[in-house]
Amino acid sequence: MKNIIVGTAGHIDHGKTALVKALTGIDADRLEEEKRRGITIDIGFAHLQLTPALRLGFVDVPGHERFVKNMLAGVGGIDLVLFVIAADESIKPQTREHFDICRLLGIPQGVVALTKADLVEPDILGLVRLEVEEFVAGSFLEGAPVVAVSSTTGAGLDSLRRELQRVASAVAEKSAAGHFRLPLDRAFTVKGFGTVVTGTAISGAVRKEQEVELYPTGRRLRVRGVQVYGEAAGQALAGQRTALNLADIEPGELARGMVLAAPGTFRAVTQLDCALDLLPSAKPLKHRAPVHFHAGTAEIEAQVRLLDGATVLQPGQRGWARIVLREAALLLPGDRFIIRMFSPVVTIGGGVVVDIGGKRYRKSDRPGVAERLRTLAEAPAAERVALLVRESKYGMGMAELVARTGLTEREIESIPSRDREGAVLSFTQPQPWFADRAWFQSAREKLLRGVREFHQKNPLVPGISKQDLRGRELPNSPPFLIDAILAQEKQIAVEGENVRLASHKLVLKQDEEQARAAIERAFEQAGLAVPALPDVLAKSGVEAARARSLLQILLREKRLIRVSDELVFHHTAMEKLRTMLAARQAVRFNVGTFKDWTGISRKYAIPLLEYLDRERVTRREGDERVVL
Questions:
Q1: At which of 170, 200, 228 does a domain end?
Q2: Please, what is the end-to-end C-alpha distance for the chain in angstroms?
Q3: Considering the entire predicted model, what is its pTM?
Q4: What is the pLDDT, as a whole number, of residue 597?
Q5: In a shared domain, residues 348 and 410
Q6: Quick one: pLDDT at residue 420?
């Protein structure tokens, strides 16, 4: 079933609530004060099963200027507008403000209802119709159906339903495939159930017993129950009026403007870059002007900072701006918003969120700011992702791309630029990661150059450790990134944690060959009573640095075995020791016995026994050991 949200808009007392009741049979005025005063103060809701395949959810908003902020809280998630103009009054101040708001929010289509048609003569009705057509010319409502109705007599209601059906059928339904988001407009307690929140799901789906995250607090909550249009349901989809029964939270901890969303997916932000449109009727907007910011159901005090070197945005102009919010909110690229003057509080403009990354712009960046934001605002997803990845030092993971763009994992994975000739390179192990292709190639060359320079400075060392190479060439990068880069470089060989040129071979000079033999011979002849390591290196015949490198070669070739920092043994001595112990399998012994078996002092016995324990040749049990 297709679900479309219809929002009413229009001046106070032009009959919005009465029209919704006449269409649906539901009184959207739920507050006693609303019924007593005869005006809509807060948002009201109703629904109409127009056809078996089409259901309309009505969001009835207040028309009084004092309650426009409530109107904004309700109009953010609508798919089409039912624009209400009373035939006996025609176009009034809030008619114009609501119309501006609908245009700024990018509402695609609508139907105009001329209410109270029974109160005017046909010729007056004709004049009002002409005024309306002139008023909406050049806007999204140009050519929209204009239907005269009377909520009192019922005249025109069938025609209005037919037009709503026709227009709603052409409106694209919100995507249930996206990540779940539900801006909250109400929170209250239902006896026997506990805390209930309501809102219009603007994307994704939510199910009973699902975990959701409350933004901007980050609190995780469990959904105990789901209702759609007042009826229990297993899940709620985008485009549906939704009520959720939440566990372990009180209504006082929730507020209009908060958002429930998929857990661990997004992050609340306090600044956003946007394309900002200033209404022709507004005053010039200065850099750093304070405003009221409205998005979804949220109202937040904010400051507008004009970008690209601008100091003033003139009425009727569009400009690039950064909006700094006093409180954090969940916003994503593509979200629409409204700004109202700080004082007096009137609508002056609105726009669309372009970026939420908070990129720092320097004066030298100024020429490219507009181009960057235009790409993020207008380019295909592949180009937007490529730009964000290119700006990140080491690329971006899937989770960060989802949080920055609002795209789903599937949308990102299917981006054409991942093709062999694209701007973005991706790999999946040990996690999905996206890197700029040009940077990736540069990093390969940088690592290759780093390994080559290491060999030049350390000819006796077979290679550089991967950790050291990463620290030198890719500091603070994700550890797995160097593996992905090295895997693409055929001139580099990776052996465990050691990295070398594939062509690198150790070639010892004559004095180095002699020194290497001398070092090995010293330990081979000593058996288990080995000499002090510094003494052996000092007598090797080469300077200390080369002697240490030769020692590392012998250790790597397993000609020598390091037991502790100070003790090194020849492999033949260790093999004899293992053979001797193998003949005593299951025998229990202490340190004294081991000294008798080997003929060595405690200086050597204790480190050797600890080494044998680590190698699982022996196992310590109290003051004794057992041969395994």
A1: 170
A2: 72
A3: 0.77
A4: 94
A5: no
A6: 52
Asked if 276 contacts 312 with a C-beta cutoff of 8 angstroms, the reply is no
pLDDT of residue 32: 45
- CATH number of the CATH domain containing 494: 1.10.10.10
> Which amino acid is residue 618, in one-letter code?
T
Q: How far is CA 377 from CA 353, 357, 371, in A?
A: 8, 14, 10
Residues 45, 164 share a domain: yes
**Which residue has tokens 């857990």?**
263
What pLDDT was estimated at residue 39?
36
Q: Which structure tokens are listed for 580?
A: 């001797």
Q: What per-residue confidence (pLDDT) applies to 421?
A: 58
- Read off the tokens for 80: 């089409």
* Residues in the chain, pLDDT under 70: 28-43, 61-76, 416-421, 507
Identity at 1, one-letter amino acid code = M
**Can you say how many angstroms the Cα of residue 337 is from the centroid of all Cα atoms in its chain?**
20
Rounded to whole angstroms, the Cα distance separating 551 from 102 reads 78
- Tokens 């049990």 appear where? 621
| Cα torsion 174, 176, 180, 183: sign | positive
Domain that holds residue 440: 379-507
CA separation for the pair 197, 226 (Å, rounded): 10
Q: Pull the structure tokens for residue 378.
A: 């207008």
pLDDT 10s digits, 281-307: 999 999 999 999 999 888 999 999 999
User: 431, 400 in Cβ contact below 8 A?
Assistant: no
Q: Kindly give the pairing relationship between strand 269-278 and strand 347-355.
A: antiparallel
CB 276 within 8 A of CB 284: no
Domain shared by 420 and 330, yes or no: no
Query: Can you give the length of the chain in residues?
Result: 628
Residue ranges of E strands in 373-507: 396-397, 424-427, 433-436, 464-465, 492-495, 498-501
Both structure tokens of 69: 């902020």
Q: What residue type is 222 in one-letter code? A: R
How far, in Å, CA of 587 to CA of 103, rounded? 90
